[in-house]
């Protein structure tokens, strides 16, 4: 019998890079588990991408361990395996240490850093079973500090998480990729980003990494708009 189609879990799948990656992965034959807090939008997207046989939606706040476990369990119960886990959920904040509220910072740090760590923790056992692929959404802001940017600090932390995971998984057969976009025109920003990347540009980068031969690990990819 032929091998079943691989299974791709995406957090933050209801919009932006997550939604675009879901579409790209579906076009490449992946079955999908779509995780985010906007369950209504997720259900619409799952239906569009093939319904229960091809895509499942699961409510997931990545700062809640039970939610993240539920998303991974959904992949295993619905499709019997997990081949790719994309820790993509995240959001930003305005620059300036006197600008955003402390509550906004707290939520952002928990989502961008703690949520990514929980996703790694939940996904590692099934990824080891399939010799799968772990991806994290970093940022160019995770390579160069930006003035007054607590968001930048969270993405430096994601850079470290990716490297820490890569070192822990060395020799296991599990690949780890950190995708670091520049400015992307998505709902992440309040206003349209002139000359920015499109979510589809980042999605193609993700699929480039996951469709390499098993012995090739695209460890880091920086994707910038030409301007």
Layout: helices, strands, pairs:
Blueprint (H helix, E strand, L loop, with lengths): L6 E5 L4 H12 L3 E6 L2 H10 L6 E5 L5 H15 L4 E4 L14 H29 L2 E5 L12 H20 L5 E7 L17 H12 L9 E4 L4
Parallel strand pairs: 1-2, 1-4, 2-3, 4-5, 5-6, 6-7
Helix pairs in contact: 1-6, 3-4, 4-5
What does this entry look like structurally?
With 227 residues, the chain is an alpha/beta fold. It has a single domain, classed as Rossmann fold. Helix content is 43%, strand content 16%. It is built from six helices and seven strands; from the N terminus they run βαβαβαβαβαβαβ. It has helices at 16-27, 39-48, 65-79, 102-130, 150-169, 199-210, and strands at 7-11, 31-36, 55-59, 84-87, 133-137, 175-181, 220-223. The chain has a seven-stranded parallel β-sheet, with helices on both faces. Strand 2 (31-36), helix 2 and strand 3 form a beta-alpha-beta unit. Helix 1 packs across helix 6 and helix 3 (65-79) runs parallel beside helix 4 (102-130).
Label this structure with key terms.
227 residues, alpha/beta, Rossmann fold, 7 strands
Give the helix proportion (percent range): 40-55%
Gross geometry: globular
Total DSSP E strands: 7
Elements, N to C (H/E): EHEHEHEHEHEHE
CA-to-CA gap between the ends? Answer: 49 Å
CATH topology: Rossmann fold
* CATH arch. level architecture: 3-Layer(aba) Sandwich
CATH superfamily: NAD(P)-binding Rossmann-like Domain
As a percent range, the share of strand residues is 15-25%
Strand order of the largest sheet: 3-2-1-4-5-6-7
CATH class bucket: Alpha Beta
Secondary structure class reads alpha/beta
On the 0 to 100 scale, the average pLDDT is: 94
Low-confidence stretches: none
């Amino acid at each position: 019998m032929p091998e079943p189609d691989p299974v791709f879990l995406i957090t933050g799948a209801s919009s932006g890079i997550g939604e675009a990656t879901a579409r790209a992965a579906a076009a490449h034959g992946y079955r999908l588990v779509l995780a985010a807090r906007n369950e209504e939008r997720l259900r619409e997207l799952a239906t569009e991408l093939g319904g229960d046989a091809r895509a499942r939606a699961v409510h997931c706040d990545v700062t809640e361990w039970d939610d993240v476990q539920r998303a991974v369990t959904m992949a295993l119960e619905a499709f019997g395996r997990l081949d790719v886990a994309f820790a993509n959920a995240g959001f930003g904040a305005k620059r300036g240490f006197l600008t955003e509220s402390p509550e906004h910072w707290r939520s952002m740090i928990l989502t961008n850093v703690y949520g990514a760590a929980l996703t790694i923790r939940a996904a590692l056992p099934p990824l080891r079973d399939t010799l799968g692929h772990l991806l994290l959404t970093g940022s160019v802001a995770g390579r160069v500090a930006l003035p007054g940017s607590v968001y930048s600090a969270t993405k430096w932390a994601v850079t470290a998480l990716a490297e820490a995971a890569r070192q822990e998984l060395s020799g296991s057969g599990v690949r780890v990729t950190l995708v670091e976009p520049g400015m992307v025109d998505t709902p992440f920003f309040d206003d349209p980003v002139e000359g920015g990347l499109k979510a589809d540009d980042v999605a193609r980068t993700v699929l480039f990494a996951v469709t390499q031969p098993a012995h090739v690990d695209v460890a880091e990819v920086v994707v910038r708009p030409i301007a």
